Amino acid sequence: MDKRIFLLSALFCMLVTGVHAQSDDLGIWTSAEVRKKIFPGFDASIEGEFRTRDGLKNVERWAAGTGVAYRITPYLKADAGYTFIYSHRPGETTKKGNYVSDYWSPRHRMYLSLTGKLTWNRFDFSLRERYQYTYRTSQMVSKYDGDDGSQKADEEITGKGKNVLRSRLQVEWNIKKSNFAPYASCELYHSMSDSWTLDKTRWTVGTGYKINKKNSLDFFYRYQNHSDDDETNGHVVGAGYKFKF
Questions:
Q1: Would you indicate the residue range of the signal peptide (predicted)?
Q2: pLDDT in tens, 188-200
């Protein structure tokens, strides 16, 4: 095995082990995607995703989505899609001292993005700008008195929409004669619904692995310095599978 590949694999394993040892706030994200080429430059995909929080102790959410992508030029790609998210919200105490039980929250997400790409030597640099709109549906949730535990009138979780601009800068190393493709990225989430405030920053390191022309894997470690109400805050370890035909 190439020494560089061995070092990258060892580094990834050490990183995952260190994260698990140092923090209880660890999420596991897994996904599977099927992508079909419709005609040259245009393809469609479907994807399923499952996430946990606190390692494997609690389910965070699952999601299913579909999307299309079109390569405008060799250096510019556009894509759009829809994702249905079903996230689990843990129970919490309200400001008035009442307890709202845990519940599952349905969300609808749509996105539209442009990705520019530039190659230098064996490194691919890309910048993706993505507009994202997420709508949380309204629902009623059981509520209990914080002192004696008696049931009270249900708490209303109001419907809410959120507009976000996601800017991701990524670099990928195309190693000669290797099935591994290590990458690193930084992604900024700016809330368009709240005076363009910076909501979240994602730092990611990982590697893709090409099994053959149709099948590939992806492994990554991610740190988020802030979380949405349907995502883990902190450390994330992920794995994905992709099938193209």
A1: 1-21
A2: 999 998 778 898 9
